[in-house]
Amino acid sequence: MRVLTVAAASIVFAAAAEAGPVTPQQVETVLQDHGASLSSAQGISDSAHLIKAELDDLTVHVRLDECDSSDRCGLVILYNAFETGEDIDEATLQKTNTFNDRYPIGRAFAFASEDGNTNLIGIDYVIDVSGEATLDSADLTRFENAVDTYIRHWNTSR
Hints:
alpha+beta
């Protein structure tokens, strides 16, 4: 299985994170401070942004959602996708559902790539920062652990 994209798999956010909604600029700064180079940042609707960055050999995607008119966003979605190299069949769906049943952090799902030529497994982790929660390294460690756990689960379920 080959990693296609990794969302914030090894980023460590500043320890002094502010509670509450975050702006795209705050997330971009954290990514850059960690050594990532920004590939793109764009508004994808009136209430969502997508940030893409390169960190070593990883492509990092962070989706910010539930953004207000000041671009303060209440949801941070870390996203990761893997090429399966296999058909999305009953066994693939069963492996993915078993992961979702056994592991509480991160949700996995199977889908075809946009061009329809590749089958992917995606893992996402949603962080609600609309209230007093913060986006910090503990969240990213949980997401990184979810990705690692899914890979181990996938490989041992063959």
